[in-house]
Design brief:
Length: 315
């Protein structure tokens, strides 16, 4: 029988629940949770993600990333007397979002975080099921991402939040950095990061990403150990081919060369300031003529998509 792996934390002899990919460190339940919490607190401090006087809205989907984000943010916000609310955007995906919504509701209740729900149908006029049934439409995930960001920004602002926290983890960060480089979109990259998305418009709610330094598999384990009740189901419309390909490539590379994702994250961090300076003046946010939300063109992407969908027949 193989010898049991023990926690490498000094003075701890409990069985390990996790061995870090790079660095050979094994941790028991208590020290693993502590390690995640400490790294998130460090990211928050390093990038000034929480400041006195803030009012935070967390985007919660009911998945592992966003629910763990809530568990990690709540004590940090409490210690600074910062109000925290959660916003769930219900896309209207039968059999998928319902279970996740329940998980979000239960975790919000346990943590004492008020939950506000907005739906695609009410805000954008179409549920994702209806969008998926349209003839000649583009990729489902494109509509979904645009409408979700549009609804979240407006809801957060209307609810009085000055920052919107999302559960993007290290894997998401590494994928997005690579995708933007591969698509030759450095200006988008310049707006990215743990406190990215800053635009000079008071209608734009600043995004913060406290989990940016935590690998996806650690967020997943955190969710399991915290008994968040997460269901690991997949959306029936999933399949953004490009991101999926980049994800597989990064996972394989990480397996062979541990530390790859963290390396991309750290490299990005060291050039982020330069990118931000280089592209700072290019983006002058305007207001969408239809909905009044910040937009880089006359009509924002969400309103453009709404118009497009109105003109498409059900297939
Ligand atoms: Fe939306 Fe695509 Fe995610 Fe499904 S997989 S919830 S369609 S972004
Ligand atoms: Zn608009």
């Amino acid at each position: 029988m193989a010898a049991e792996i023990l926690c490498s934390f000094k003075g701890c002899a409990r069985p390990a629940v996790y061995t870090q990919h790079c660095g050979d460190r094994s941790l028991c339940r208590k020290h693993f949770l502590q390690s995640v919490e400490r790294r998130v607190a460090r990211t928050v401090r390093r990038f000034g993600l929480l400041e006195k006087g803030d009012s935070i809205a967390a985007a919660v989907s009911g998945g592992k990333d966003s629910v763990s984000l809530l568990h990690l943010l709540k004590p940090l916000c409490d210690s600074m007397r910062i109000p925290l609310i959660a916003i769930l955007v219900d896309e209207g995906i039968t059999g998928y979002r319902d279970g996740a919504r329940k998980v979000a509701e239960e975790n919000c209740k346990t943590l004492g975080v008020p939950l506000h729900v907005r739906s695609f149908k009410e805000e954008a006029g179409f549920s994702m099921d209806e969008i998926a049934g349209k003839k000649g439409r583009g990729k489902a995930c494109s509509y979904c991402g645009v409408f979700r960001r549009w609804i979240l920004n407006r809801a957060a602002r209307e609810l009085g939040a000055n920052k919107l926290a999302t559960g993007h983890n290290l894997d998401d960060l590494a994928q997005t950095v690579l995708m933007n480089i591969m698509r030759n979109e450095p200006s988008r990259l310049a707006r990215f990061g743990p406190n990215g998305g800053v635009a000079e418009d008071e209608r734009f709610v600043r995004r913060i990403k406290p989990l940016n330094g935590i690998p996806e598999r650690e967020v997943a384990l955190y969710a399991v150990l915290m008994e968040e009740g997460i269901e690991f189901g997949e959306c029936p419309y999933a399949g953004e081919a490009f991101r999926g390909g980049v994800r597989d490539f990064l996972n394989e590379t990480e397996e062979e060369y541990p530390g790859t994702k963290a390396g991309i994250g750290n490299s990005f961090e060291s050039i982020r300031g330069l990118l931000a300076d280089a592209f700072a003046k290019v983006e002058k946010p305007r207001r969408c003529k239809e909905c009044g939300e910040p937009s880089s063109s006359e009509i924002c992407k969400a309103c453009g998509m709404r118009r497009e969908l109105e003109g498409l027949e059900v297939g």
